[in-house]
Design a protein that fits this description.
By secondary structure, the protein is an alpha+beta fold. The protein has a domain of 56 residues: Ybab, Chain: A, CATH 3.30.1310. It is 56% helix and 18% strand. It has two helices and three strands. Helix 1 packs antiparallel against helix 2. The radius of gyration is 19 Å and the shape is rod-shaped. It starts with a helix and ends in a 7-residue tail after the last helix. The mean pLDDT is 85.
Length: 98
């Protein structure tokens, strides 16, 4: 394979990776625990936090804080899994690129 063909293949690979990353970044993910629902985009920006206030009593604030923490962490894991699923084929052996 000549150098021009390799460069063309590398450019295509880069374009494919960037398209996959853009798709992930624009996807909205959601995670729910009990009466807490959190949404975030694929670039890990939280877009909403919803609490079903009809299910909450004043004494449950600490539990709500814990639920938010667990729910956000689960949401970030979902985004990481989707990123690995879509970009893993490009980054094999090169962890941490995205």
């Amino acid at each position: 394979m000549n150098i021009q063909a390799m460069m063309k293949q590398a450019q295509k690979l880069q374009k494919d990776m960037m398209n996959a990353k853009k798709e992930i970044d624009e996807t909205e993910f959601e995670s729910s625990k009990s009466f807490v629902t959190i949404k975030a985009t694929g670039n890990k920006k939280i877009t909403s936090v919803k609490i079903d206030v009809q299910s909450v009593e004043q004494e449950e604030i600490e539990m709500i804080e814990d639920l938010i923490l667990v729910t956000v962490n689960e949401l970030m894991n979902k985004i990481d899994a989707e990123t690995e699923k879509k970009l893993g084929k490009y980054t094999q052996g090169m962890p941490g690129l995205f």
